[in-house]
Amino acid sequence: MPLLTTGKAFIKDLEKAGSVAVYAPLEGGFEGRYQRRLRSYGYQTFNLSARGLGDLSAYLMNVHGVRPPHLGKKNIGQEGAVGPTYFVPPIAGYQLENLPAKAKGLVLWIIEGFVLSNQEKQYLVDLTKQEPKIKVVLELGGDRFFRWQSLSEAL
C-alpha cells in the first residue's frame, strides 16, 4: 500500500507557526497518521481534551490544585466541605522536563478545541513563543478532508 501522505508540509508549517488549527474528517484516522509522522520526525506527542481544562496556564505550565469529587462522603470537622485539595504537576512542563535528549520537542495535540475561548487560543499561540520546544495542534472542527492553518490565522 503506498504512503498516502508524508506529512512534511504539515510538520514544516507546525515548526514555522508553532501552533496550528486542524480540521479533520469526523470519521477519524487522519490524526493518528499525522501523529505518527510527528513521532518519526523526532517529536513527542501528548494527547488531551480541551473540555474541563480550566485555566490553561495553570494546567499546562504551573503546579495546580485539583479537588476530586467527594462521591457523597464528607469529612466533617477535618477539612472544608469542599474536600481536600491535591496538587499535581504541570502537564506540559512535566512532559517537557522528561523529554528524551534527542527529541526535537513536545507536541500538545488538543482535541475539541472549539470549546476554548479566543483568549485561551491566544494563550496557546503565546505559549509556543515563550517555550520554543512546545508545539500545539488544536482540533477546531470537522471537514471533508484533513486541512490545517496557523492558529493565529484561525483566530
UniProtKB/TrEMBL annotation:
<keyword id="KW-0874">Quinone</keyword>
<protein>
    <recommendedName>
        <fullName>NAD(P)H-quinone oxidoreductase subunit N</fullName>
        <ecNumber>7.1.1.-</ecNumber>
    </recommendedName>
</protein>
<keyword id="KW-0813">Transport</keyword>
<comment type="function">
    <text>NDH-1 shuttles electrons from an unknown electron donor, via FMN and iron-sulfur (Fe-S) centers, to quinones in the respiratory and/or the photosynthetic chain. The immediate electron acceptor for the enzyme in this species is believed to be plastoquinone. Couples the redox reaction to proton translocation, and thus conserves the redox energy in a proton gradient. Cyanobacterial NDH-1 also plays a role in inorganic carbon-concentration.</text>
</comment>
<dbReference type="GO" id="GO:0048038">
    <property type="term" value="F:quinone binding"/>
</dbReference>
<comment type="similarity">
    <text>Belongs to the complex I NdhN subunit family.</text>
</comment>
<dbReference type="Pfam" id="PF11909">
    <property type="entry name" value="NdhN"/>
</dbReference>
<dbReference type="GO" id="GO:0031676">
    <property type="term" value="C:plasma membrane-derived thylakoid membrane"/>
</dbReference>
<dbReference type="GO" id="GO:0016655">
    <property type="term" value="F:oxidoreductase activity, acting on NAD(P)H, quinone or similar compound as acceptor"/>
</dbReference>
<keyword id="KW-0793">Thylakoid</keyword>
<keyword id="KW-0618">Plastoquinone</keyword>
<keyword id="KW-0521">NADP</keyword>
<comment type="subunit">
    <text>NDH-1 can be composed of about 15 different subunits; different subcomplexes with different compositions have been identified which probably have different functions.</text>
</comment>
<keyword id="KW-0520">NAD</keyword>
<keyword id="KW-1278">Translocase</keyword>
<keyword id="KW-0472">Membrane</keyword>
<dbReference type="InterPro" id="IPR020874">
    <property type="entry name" value="NAD(P)H-quinone_OxRdtase_su_N"/>
</dbReference>
